[in-house]
Target: Precorrin-3B synthase
Amino acid sequence: MTRRGPDSCPGVLRLHQAADGPLARIRVPGGLLNPAQLQALAESARDLADGNIELTSRGNIQLRQVRDAAALTDRLAAVGLLPSHTHERVRNIIASPLSGRVGGLADLRALGPALDAGLLAAPRLAELPGRVLFTLDDGRGDVSGLGADIGVHAIGAEEFALLLAGRDSGVRLRAADTIEVMLAAAHGFLDLRGEDAGRWRLHDIEQGADRVVDLLGLSPVADRLELPVRRSLPIGWLEQEDGLVGLGAGVRLGCLPARTAEFLAAVERPIVVTPWRGLVVADLEAWAAEQVVRVLAPMGLIFDADSPWLLVSACAGQPGCAKSHTDVRADVSEAVDTGRVLPAAYPLEHGANDRDADPEKAAPRQVSEPPRIAATDISVAGRQHWSGCDRRCGRPRDQVTDIVATDEGYRIG
Ligand code: SF4
Model:
């Protein structure tokens, strides 16, 4: 499959002109931020952008309404968030956020930085499209279902499955060989892509995964693993294997206010941005973890796994996107605040828009032409993604109810 032309993914050096102003996307390989980096992001959001840090579904960061791109570049470079001007958009690496601390078959904490260093060290890999995704799954299956172009999935502490184009290739690797093979696969993708800039992903190349395996001189040796999409949102108190504590925090619609980020940075512990638009504050003593919850829960961070905020996601909508029919974030926020986002176990389940209706007696839904519904009348149980138009940007890959704005109201499903 060939797409339209060169991919236009934004970065720090190439801003996207969104409807509400320039947008910068900052790559955070493995979602790993140190306190100084989070502090710099918070200050940049406050001084140079709209005051918020947006978390993306690839564990990256976005700033909106950037007023001074040169100043932003300098600030990010000073804390190591822009180590290369040539490779900034290719550093899309998602790793199991709890690896090495809680569960998993292998400790992958060193692999993310090693893969990033390998990408940066290879001049040709700057040619990778900004959409190419690398994943490192420690065997718990939390990120292998995200459809990476190139990934590894631990099947033991020292053995990994090589994933290509979102599937298990059947190739098995020793831990020591993973980075070298992933980088070689990235070169292989570029070889196959040739001059066709419209091929943004390995998935876009016919038989791309098999051809990369051949190029690398590897052979499938095992039955393919199934890699289901699995949402593994770490929320609340997480006992680490080293006796310390991690705190998983949900972030409302993935939008972290600069002031909250500054409080997080002041904790002076590693922060991991998750691909579910949340955070993990790692390596806390128990007393410090209690303090963090006491201070940051009232500021809006979510430590309660039953929070309705964890059931909802939304695209940018108005005013950030010119295609949007409405301000979806305001609408979904009102739905949460007024109790219209219901637990998944609520009897009406997906698609309900009348809490008092009896589903047993309800008339069959008109599937071909679903009704349009005012935002204030929507009441849906379980996971739901609100979109400002049919493109459904940011939609999670797993099961959700779609709530899509049209020019006549919302359509459910
Ligand atoms: S789903 Fe539509 S309205 Fe929402 S961000 Fe994407 S293009 Fe814009």
